[in-house]
From TrEMBL:
InterPro entries: ANF_lig-bd_rcpt, Peripla_BP_I. Keywords: Membrane, Transmembrane, Transmembrane helix. It is found in: Membrane. It comes from Tegillarca granosa (Malaysian cockle). This is Receptor ligand binding region domain-containing protein. Residues 78-230 form the Receptor ligand binding region domain. It comes from the Eukaryota. It holds the Pfam family ANF_receptor.
Amino acid sequence: MAQNKGTVWNNVTSILSPGSGYSSALQLQKNIAEHSPIITQANHKARSGYHVIIGPFYENLAMIFENISLPYIVTDYIGFDWIDSSLIRNDIKWKTLVELLPSAFEVNRAVVDLFVSKEWSSVVVILPDDSKVNQVCQDLIMQMIKRRISPIAFNIDTTGNLDNQTADVLRNTQQLAQTRILICSPRDETHNLINTTLNEAQNFGLLEKEDYVIFALDTIRYVLSMILNHLLAAIDYIMET
């Protein structure tokens, strides 16, 4: 959440970065350029002391901010403790909202488009058995089914022994003669499903086989190490404009 104590948006003096999320200075430049009314709205809110809110998406907050014309820069479609599914499959055109990330729906659609272009008709999908994040993976599975791709889903209990579970999945993958594996782990810094699966795949010798294709889908991977630098770069850009 950012607070501006000056009179215009480019005088932002303090910022609290969210616990999760992503922002890119280049993407922010593009989005700001495409949403010039955001700057006008920010300046209009000078008297209140707040010009812009920066943080993960929550629909109730988006509704409030739109009602009072307060700009809302969304750094992540996943909130701190739970996921707001309304931003995954949502056609609402928010007037005061700027997204720094492609939506989960768009990322999933890009994955499905790749499968269609390669004429791949099936895939093993490994996902965490966690309702807080599974809406992202379930949306991907539904998009695949609609495009006549057959996902074979394996839910992993991330509170149990990951090595044994992923090894069982890979054995089943070989028995099913599947050569495409997609690891959907939208909160992998918590679940560690991607590294575990890749390590087990290496033990099985799958990484050396040219006919195997393994995808790791984590839309915020490496974010925690980059977010502060990217946010500061974005703020520098705003202050220079």
